[in-house]
Amino acid sequence: MDCPKCGRYLGEGMLPARCPHCGENLANPTDSIRGSKAAASRKNVEGLTGIGKGNTQGRKRRYLQLLVGVILIVAFAGLLSYATSGFGTEPELAVPDLIGWRVERAEEELADLGYTPVVEDVLSTDGSSGIVVAQDPPAGTTRPAYSEVIIRVSSSIAMPDIVGKQWAEVRPMLDSAGIAYEVTEQLSDEVNDTVISSNVASGTPIGKDTVVQVIVAKRPSVPNLVGLTPDEAASKLVVDHLALKTKDVIAKDGEKEGTIVAQDPAEGASVPVGSEVLASVARSATDVYTNATEAVLNAIYNTNPAGDAVGNALKPLLAEDSRYADASSHDIWWNLVKRGGLFNDQPDELQELQRSLVSSTISVNPDTRQVQATITVNWDWTGLPGAGASNSQDTRTVTLTFDDEGGLVDFYDEQTDVPYFKVAQ
Prior knowledge:
The structure is a single chain. This protein is α+β, with helices and mostly antiparallel strands. The protein folds into four domains: 92-155, Trypsin Inhibitor V, Chain A; 160-218, Trypsin Inhibitor V, Chain A (2-Layer Sandwich); 230-283, Trypsin Inhibitor V, Chain A (2-Layer Sandwich), CATH 3.30.10; 286-424, Nuclear Transport Factor 2, Chain: A (Roll). The protein has ten helices and 17 strands. The strands form six sheets. Strands 14-15-16-17 form a four-stranded antiparallel sheet, with helices on one face. Strand 14 and strand 15 form a beta hairpin.
């Protein structure tokens, strides 16, 4: 379309309110060619761009927006490049060698260098505690500042108090603490399985390489002696540090003479070290009474010194039903041997002469359980000043009565313990 005034071409479509060349008002409402659509278009343009300026301001705003976008893109690319190029990360440091350091010093050193120390406890091998024994990463490795460095620190276990406790109580105590041990049994008077010692004292720090030696009590167990001879039984008992004591009993039907037919304590009994085991040895009746007689004669005539020592030696030889069974040593000597002081008018020195049995001839009556013994006794006078002799001998006959197990019931010596010839003077 051309301007109606100057004739210049104004383009097609929406017209400006005025001709940009001559300034002619183009908003003529009577213009039948343009009609209401052209008027509406001009009104719209005037409201948006101003009179006679078209869309110049819109183009500037678009340029400005483009410029801002470019700046933002450049800035983002710069930040991305900065981040991916490594700039801005923490500097890497060399991890120090901390093996052998105290844990407190190692933690301080790592913190000063900018690391984060992480402590892990490990059981030491030698009982040490608080010493760095390993680290991760190793010394010389580079790591960024503030990264973690693991230091493994030795720890120990305090040896618990186990002496005097039962092994059944001690064993789970050591197992739960991770303590290695070796157990050895040792003969003892303590109750079986009592811990009597260990090679590590209570409270001592120990490590994983420590092996605690635990000694537990083992009381001897009495073996079976029945059927053995006394010599065989003695050899068997000595292994368990036990002793044999024998007594003769009259053999019953089916029992072999010279062998043990009963024992006390019984087989399997737990007894202290050094205990005696009393074994009953089967003998003929004659042998039982003969052996019992020899034991009584030795107690009375081989006693040094005499006196109450005689009664003390006779005590274990008495029958259970003897009237002297519960008497004192003095009463046994005074009433059984001296017959109530029958010869008490003789000087004490004479009645207590030291003596020894020279010989004996024994005659046994198994049916009555009586024995007659003809003995020769040597009397020592050296302890009696003015006696005029060093020793003398006399021969006498004594009578002994036993029960059916060979226990002494009664004893008779006409002269008791006084020399014959001295009484005759």
